[in-house]
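Batch job 17 of 40 flagged for manual review because the log was empty.
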Amino acid sequence: MISVVVLTLNEAANLPRCLASVAWSDDVVVMDSGSTDGTTDVAQTHGARVMTRQFDSFAGQRNHAMEHAGFRHPWVLQLDADEVVTDALRDELLAIAAATSAPFPVYRVPSRIIFMGRWLKHAGMYPAYQVRFGRADALRFVDHGHGQREVQPPEQVGTLAHPLDHHNFSKGVNDWFARHLRYAEREALQMLTERAMPLRPFELFSGDATARRRALKRLAGRMPLRPWLRFAYAGILRGGFIDGAAGLRYARMLAIYQQFIDLNYHQLHTAQDAGRTRRNSQEHSTT
């Protein structure tokens, strides 16, 4: 069998659906960040164990659960409360866990974004992958932007065929924008770090889809008119218009999010330049 971790913060509305999708697991741990809406009561009602820790980052929360939950099983699935494990994904996970040996220690899972009652197959950049499943002794994360990445090199990461469903807008678009306002600063900090690093354009032609996507993101971070480019990519090049009004609206929201990131980047970059100027002035004044 498989142990499951669910990250929560005020997710009483979403949690029952998520927990119902992993009812096949006899070891579910809710990693809560201090909910005040009855989330932990919902978790306990559904038979989940509850751990509480003040949120610092997604990687920090996931790693804390991996290191302190005392899982009953050697394989662990990591979820957010607005995600749902499909039946096909459940069967794929159980097959790997039941095998006498697995070819990879961790696996990336595709995600389907659900918006306005439909799957955004095109605008949602399906399949967008995140490593969420792996052996309890191997599944660890590092911070990257507002989210997290796995610690393993690409050749040690498997890819699952079946997706989980991500109900990213289950609390409404205002909640989505509020969260992405918070995420924007972390993404801007990551952009500031990556702009100091050399580009590796050969990765755009990698055989690994995740490597290509990350290389494209690094390249896009250095281009002008990024909000417009992000709308064009999601809404047109990726075929978001095929998803109808939902796809085009989501593409517009991504463009607004990119504007949030760019404004934060400009603010951070300006402060960095001012700090550098002050240090240079102080060095000259002492010589």
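Reviewer: the log was empty due to a logging misconfiguration, but the result itself is present. The longest strand covers residues 106-115. Unflagging and moving on to job 18.
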